[in-house]
Amino acid sequence: MNPILNQYEYDAKEYKDELVQLINKSGQDRLTFWLKNYYERSGNEYIIVHIQGDSICATAEILVKDWDKIDGIKKSYGKGYRGAQLVGLQFEIQQNPQSTEFVYLGIDSIRD
What we know:
The chain has helices at 3-7, 13-26, 71-75, and strands at 32-41, 44-53, 56-63, 85-87, 90-95, 100-106, 109-111. It is an alpha+beta fold. The protein has a single domain (3-111), classed as CATH 2.40.50. The strands form two sheets. It has a five-stranded mixed sheet. It has a two-stranded antiparallel ribbon with strand order 4-7. Strand 2 and strand 3 form a beta hairpin. It is globular, with a radius of gyration of 13 Å. The mean pLDDT is 92.
């Protein structure tokens, strides 16, 4: 029901900035994540995840540089893991006036 999340696509800076505020308000550790997709763009690799929490229902694009513990997602192009819960997903938020990025740090496990 968030007007900004409804107006923009998940890869738009406006969407990401709003999502940062919602994540900070809820707390990253209080959210649940599910894998939607994997893709490559401009030499970078991303996973797309659904995020759900008390006040959040959104999608995030997460840049992955280190495939530790999730290499299977990359090898299958996400197809074998779509809909899997990403338990304990950790990422950092890198934000500046030109861009906002969610960058993968680690994961506890994948529940398929």
